[in-house]
Prior knowledge:
This protein has 313 residues and is an alpha+beta fold. Helices cover 43% and strands 29% of the residues.
Amino acid sequence: MQSHIKMKTFFTTIIFITSLLSSCVEEEALTDATGVFEATEIIVSAEANGKILSLKINEGDQLKRDKIIGLIDSTQLYLTKLQLKASKKAVESGKPDVRTQIEATEREIAKQEREKERIEKLLAGDVATQKQLDDIEAAIAILESRLKSQKSSLNTNVTAIDAQSKTIDVQIAQVEDQLEKCKVKSPIDGTVLVKYAEKGEMAAMGKALYKIADVDNMTLKAYVTGDQLAKLKIGQEVDVLAEFGKTETKNYQGKITWISSKSEFTPKTIQTQDERANLVYAVKIAVKNDGFLKIGMYGGFKSSLGTDQISSK
């Protein structure tokens, strides 16, 4: 009886071990390669110097692109802008009125032209002399020369003042750009991962304020052997398996967006189907996140492109 029980226990153990090994093989075959999930991370830094007046974010907040979430003190820049505007107004006030200043000379020329016509008529009736006509023509020539000189001088002054005004406009635009950079914005749609600064702190240009990542669109960076590389291509649809703990997994649809052109040594944390492979190729797979995928989570992928499809090309 005891012998029978021992024999039954032995066979039960064998069956359990066999099924365990079988499940391990099946689990291993679920993926061609493994890696970790990544996201596009951006460290947003201050673009201006001054005290942080507000920074309305917390880790985990969802931000929209170009949303203003903070402000750096811009008082001095605003005062500089007001000063430049006053300078521009003062410069433009010195611009001469060309029409007003040449109007008197033009009226004098018109008067002399009428006098010339009168003398020409008198000369035709032998009432005036040729000298009178010559004198009036000389006077008109002098006035026309004076008018030309006035116009040239006035236009030069106007051009110089316009140039000064445009220079001030450029300086105002520079200050306005600096004022805009005092507004802390989100460069992308994403989630705040880390907050590095707080309201009331001094910000210097280049100081890190927070880190944001686009976690809606994740990337699985996995490593494949040279043999597996022949079965992959950019744009190829693949099945992605995300690991949640030791036993729980979830399937996603992914697309290969990048394949490394150079091999590298297998990272210690990465497993491949051929553990003897020292050199592997990095592959990036775009995966749409449903909210469960996290940065640094392990996952793998299974190629949906078979050998038949490759050989038929």
